[in-house]
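Hey,
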Amino acid sequence: MKILAIESSCDETAAAVVEDGRHVLSSVISSQVAEHILYGGVVPEIASRRHVEAITPVVREAVSSCGLTYDDIDAVAVTHAPGLIGALLVGVNFAKGLSLSLDKPLIPVHHLRSHIASNYITHKELEPPFLALVVSGGHSHIVEVRDYTDFSVIGRTRDDAAGECMDKAARALGLPYPGGLNLDKISADGNSDAYKFPRPTVSGSEYDFSFSGLKTAAVNLIHNASQKGEEISIKDFGASYIKAVVRSLVENTEKAAKALGYKKIVIAGGVSANSVLRREMTKLCEKNGFELYLPDKSLCGDNAAMVGSQGYYEYLSGKRADMTLNAKATMGIDE
């Protein structure tokens, strides 16, 4: 089954053709990063306008580049939640029009579910059940994946997401957007013990995260050093800060896996590309005898291939949408 998938939840306009949920026939991404660098982050209105400009040529290229025509497509899948509402609406409305004109089924896909599905493309042998850590600029979740369309959130951030926490600290250090990525690069050989950061916990919810205190501690440290005329080592600061964020992610995932009896651990989302997280999760799984699944780095960021993968399993479960489908800025992965 060949699914044409569309993704426009933030600042990448993407389309892909995926066969049977695991085989990517084409994947096209039009990134807006260069423009949003000017503003230090994504500007929603600009993102929406660029999606409008890019979506038609991106979809056309996704179909033509794998030697297919629209008649060869069996269904259309689209990210409909969560994300920037204006950006989502561009993709949803385009997909609805395409589905109607081609008389093909329309499949709504949750953005976080598709991030998890990126591992089905990288690891053809991977099957549920497993425990997934989903970390990005807007989300930090520990999720039980009981089946391809059966999810249960057992841990989540109470405030900021891990990716946002890294982005804000990077911005305070004067690093350009995307902050988390640049912070990871610049701190590769830094001293991770040079600066001390708090160890956040959530009382009564051992699998939940809280990153706002870490962000505040970082900003205060930077401001205090500036007021005293002290120089901060960006690479040491970055290494120490990333260590603190990753420590929280790894420790909570380990506790959840042991308590719930999971031996398969899946990491997904934009922050799954972070070198420290990948290294520390590898150590954790080797220590405990867990199987670790990481998406290829090309699939960590937003893309449509992962939407096509999850869309296939949503289709098999009977999920369909009609022309009343709307975008949603917020929506639980288990809804």
